[in-house]
């Protein structure tokens, strides 16, 4: 799984440029509160930057982001309804962690408008959820291959794997929201502002769609692992054919891996397209960072190869286990193809961000590739011997095998992101309650209002997945 480098942001006070236009100055308290929650986010990001990877608290960061988003939505809503005015146009400073840079550092960029801050905050939210999922998976180890683990312990770790899948699905929904809703709103709000053309890859629609796809494919890969957990445990003593009775359909596993490879391929095409389009727009200034980071592109490229190899592995196993004698050659052909692909990446696995220097995870992934190569070798040797001595079927060419590959299937889906209610201003619980009470007061003949049902609304828990951490 990819480890996202988290951005950091510069200090900013909403008090310096926000003016309360309401007659009773009802936002005098809320504006400093928004500044405070933003300062909390800035502090958490700076602390995370200084903390060693194994000690980073991504869960705390997720909670800090969730505290700030309603406050920022309140500021944006009040600005849109002219309940708060601006003394001057604010500029928000953030580091662009997805931009390619020859010095391997994250350049700082300042862009105007509160939508800039919301976009970067939501990006940070998605990155933190993805990193939190990755941290959970890293802590589990290769538990399904532990021969002495109890059934209860294995199921408990399966549940933790499901939690990681949920976090990735939530992250995918956030990136989709940025691409499909927030960025178009920002463009409409800014009109033809030159700031829109200077946006980094982090704030391009193509890159955010790619991030959504990548998170979803990462989630599916974890779902496959959970699906194979019981069979992997049962197969510890004598790995290889025949498959244990607890093993799910090899054809199903192959189709799940095929869909992962397909999604990673789409994500890779999108990040390349974003770089090419931005390069054409900024051809007059070649020094600008228009490419998406090489680490992300390499990760996606390697995942395409890895999951493609695993899909061919399981297609070969399906042919060998369920295809009877007439598919003996097909089993050998698919497994030989998978073996070749894994051999190509076993010594050159590059799917970990070089910025992080996460050597332990780099070794973990390399070991995963080697383990799969060993597994493919066992199946290949068994089915080849069987075909050479019993079935005598010709081994199809790679072109023939390609025509027999089925379509992939998706087992999970992204969790749509629904922005929380603003902490104050139009759309907030207090604002809805006040408006309802005014309407009740106007409609009552004696002039005495009745508390509306909307007064029972609660701020917390209004968005998808609120509070679902563990």
From TrEMBL:
<dbReference type="GO" id="GO:0005886">
    <property type="term" value="C:plasma membrane"/>
</dbReference>
<feature type="domain" description="BRO1">
    <location>
        <begin position="1"/>
        <end position="453"/>
    </location>
</feature>
<dbReference type="Pfam" id="PF03097">
    <property type="entry name" value="BRO1"/>
</dbReference>
<comment type="similarity">
    <text>Belongs to the palC family.</text>
</comment>
<protein>
    <recommendedName>
        <fullName>pH-response regulator protein palC</fullName>
    </recommendedName>
</protein>
<dbReference type="GO" id="GO:0071467">
    <property type="term" value="P:cellular response to pH"/>
</dbReference>
<dbReference type="InterPro" id="IPR004328">
    <property type="entry name" value="BRO1_dom"/>
</dbReference>
<dbReference type="InterPro" id="IPR038499">
    <property type="entry name" value="BRO1_sf"/>
</dbReference>
<dbReference type="InterPro" id="IPR037505">
    <property type="entry name" value="pH-resp_palC"/>
</dbReference>
């Amino acid at each position: 799984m990819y480890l996202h480098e988290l951005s950091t942001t510069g200090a900013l006070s909403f008090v310096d440029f926000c003016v309360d236009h309401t007659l009773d100055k009802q936002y005098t308290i809320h504006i400093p509160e928004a500044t405070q929650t933003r300062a909390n986010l800035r502090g958490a990001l700076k602390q995370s930057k200084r903390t060693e990877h194994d000690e980073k608290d991504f869960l705390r960061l997720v909670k800090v982001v969730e505290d700030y988003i309603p406050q920022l939505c309140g500021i944006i809503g009040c600005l849109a309804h002219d309940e708060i005015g601006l003394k001057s146009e604010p500029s928000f400073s953030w580091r662009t962690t997805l931009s390619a840079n020859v010095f391997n550092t994250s350049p700082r960029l300042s862009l105007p408008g509160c939508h800039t801050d919301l976009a970067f905050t939501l990006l940070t939210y998605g990155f933190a959820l993805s990193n939190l999922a990755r941290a959970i998976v890293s802590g589990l180890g290769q538990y399904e291959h532990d021969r002495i683990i109890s059934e209860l312990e294995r199921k408990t770790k399966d549940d933790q794997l499901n939690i990681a899948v949920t976090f990735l699905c939530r992250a995918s929904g956030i990136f989709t929201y940025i691409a499909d809703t927030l960025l178009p709103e920002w463009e409409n709000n800014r009109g033809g502002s030159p700031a829109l053309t200077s946006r980094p890859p982090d704030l391009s629609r193509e890159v955010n769609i790619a991030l959504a796809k990548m998170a979803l494919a990462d989630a599916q890969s974890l779902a496959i692992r959970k699906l194979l957990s019981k069979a992997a445990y049962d197969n510890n003593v004598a790995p290889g054919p025949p498959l244990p009775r607890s093993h799910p359909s090899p054809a199903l596993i192959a189709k799940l891996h095929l869909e992962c490879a397909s999604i990673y391929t789409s994500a890779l095409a999108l990040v390349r397209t974003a770089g090419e389009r931005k390069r054409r727009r900024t051809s007059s200034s070649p020094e600008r960072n228009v490419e998406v980071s090489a680490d992300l592109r390499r990760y996606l490229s390697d995942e395409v190869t890895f999951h493609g190899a695993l899909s061919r592995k399981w297609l070969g196993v399906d042919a060998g286990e369920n295809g009877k004698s007439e598919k003996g050659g097909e089993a050998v052909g698919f497994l030989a193809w998978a073996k070749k692909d894994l051999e190509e990446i076993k010594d050159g696995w590059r799917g970990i961000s070089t910025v992080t220097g996460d050597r332990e995870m780099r070794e973990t992934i390399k070991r995963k590739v080697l383990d799969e190569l060993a597994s493919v070798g066992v199946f290949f040797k068994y089915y080849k011997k069987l075909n050479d001595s019993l079935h005598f079927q010709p081994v199809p060419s790679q072109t023939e095998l390609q025509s027999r590959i089925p379509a992939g299937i998706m087992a999970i889906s992204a969790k749509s992101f629904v922005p929380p209610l603003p902490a104050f201003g139009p759309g907030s619980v207090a604002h809805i309650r006040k408006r309802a009470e005014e309407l009740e007061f106007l409609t009552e003949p004696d002039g005495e209002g009745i508390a509306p049902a909307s007064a029972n609304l609660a701020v917390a828990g209004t968005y998808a997945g609120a509070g679902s951490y563990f």
